[in-house]
Amino acid sequence: MSQHEVTRARPQRWDEPFGDDMTEALVDRLLGVEPFGSMDPKAFPSATPLRAILLNDTRVIRYADGDLIVREGDYGGSAFLVLDGVARVALENLPEAKADRPSASGGKLRRALARLLSPPKAPETRGPTGLPPVLGPGVGARGDGEHATVFLQDVPAVLDRTRTARLGPGEIFGELSALTRSPRSATVFAESPVVMLEIRWQGLRDLMRYTPALAAHVDMLYRQNSLAVHLRETPLLRGLSAEALERVAEAVEFESFGSFEWQADHPATSELTPFERVEREPIAAEEGQPPGGLLLVRGGFGRVTRREGAGRRTVAYLGKGQQFGAEEIAAAATGEDAAPLRRSLHAVGRLDLIRIPTAVVVEEVLPTLNASQLTAWAASPTAEQPVADSNTLDFLVDHRLMNGTRAMVIDLDRCTRCDDCVRACAATHEGNPRFVRQGAVHDRYQFANACMQCVDPVCLLGCPTGAIHRDEATGVVAINDPTCVGCATCANSCPYKNIQMVEIRDPGGAIQIDEKTNQPIVKATKCDLCAGQLTGPACQHACPHDALVRVDLSDVSGLPSSVTR
């Protein structure tokens, strides 16, 4: 064996349990409460037994009065089960939970100086990171490190002025965020001392997979919570009374098209012709047919097309919060029947919709709109997007690039291939760049293989330990190196090939070797938007020709004019 290699055991899924304090005795107690008491241990495979899931994928957390358990807008990959005590979910905005988080420039400066003064001896050696909690008006902090909590200073006052719902023992919350890789939809805080079981989403996934009753229950909660939040946040429905909103909620239908794990089919569809790709996409609403209702996008992406000859022309794409069919239903405001759909809506990967029947829109919603609101509502969501030509829209949708909020776009006419961007990235990341200067090309623009910080980060799917996650403070998709077992699930799941598996070294520079297979141990790495840099992405600031920019492709109206010409 080379003197530059060391042997060690390969990391396994449960080498880093979710809770260090979980014991067999605690698992025994959990198996005596619902829903675990009704689960059949024989239904679980030997590789992931029920006891092992509870031991390694859950943790018991105790909160004091007023402690914020989750905050609206934060990202999280876990659900919570109330074991004891009472928690409250805020049904409206809670100002105390919305305090701005200041930038961690002090931490960034320390890390930058440490990197300058003590550069690593070899690439891919790592050190710990962390930021202190940030306080806002009406809140305090207690504890330190990972056990620090933020709490409401005056719980009775908050309860007096805020509509809340009670969460008692046996109730589950947080499953919406955990299962959809989305921000928390509401703030939850402890009304009294409360004991919670936190279940990371990998454990929740396995529990649901082998317990149909739990899967049905979580699905019901997901549907209910998703609907309530989405309807409250839809501008179109803000003018409705509580009674009217309830009638709308009772009438809506949930519809889903495509696959939740759409990335598995992406490589195959990329080999198809543009016509074949569009024809393979599930159709949620067909041009020429009656609208059947107003469609609200609650997740995923949709392609809006218009027939031209024997093919279809892409005229727009829709994401979460947008709507389809308003233009045609608006005709009913004048007493006419709703017009046939002028465009079709296709599911791009996965598309989750809320359908409000046309009759309900006409009866409950249209009377609340004045003439100017009606005009704006009818024209904006599905109107053709003139800022980008059809070829650009087709390219973005066909390559699923509209999923990216921070895509790296390189102007090849400006780029001189000097590689200053690559060297800057390497200098910032332990001598190893976190992106590859290659990727799909449209016109003169290259969409490089760098993490795009996706709206729907499918790389989170399947990670056995939760090492790849959304940072709860920033929303940035990041990799927690200590819990990464090098399984490459995230790299294989990323349809854009933006995650690389790299051989790791010890601080002395020796490559770490698996003692069982005698193969190098690898870990996942990707662009982290230079989280440790005061100036942001080093690649962009290092380019001497302004050829490299970061672009939000999820909103075509925000694209630079040069890209959409």
From TrEMBL:
Residues 406-425, 475-504 form the 4Fe-4S ferredoxin-type domain. InterPro entries: 4Fe4S_Fe-S-bd (IPR017896), 4Fe4S_Fe_S_CS (IPR017900), cNMP-bd_dom (IPR000595), cNMP-bd_dom_sf (IPR018490), RmlC-like_jellyroll (IPR014710), RnfB_subfamily (IPR050294). Residues 54-208, 236-356 form the Cyclic nucleotide-binding domain. Keywords: 4Fe-4S, Iron, Iron-sulfur, Metal-binding, Repeat. Signal peptide: none annotated. GO terms for molecular function: 4 iron, 4 sulfur cluster binding; metal ion binding. This is Electron transport protein HydN. It comes from Pseudobythopirellula maris. The gene is hydN.
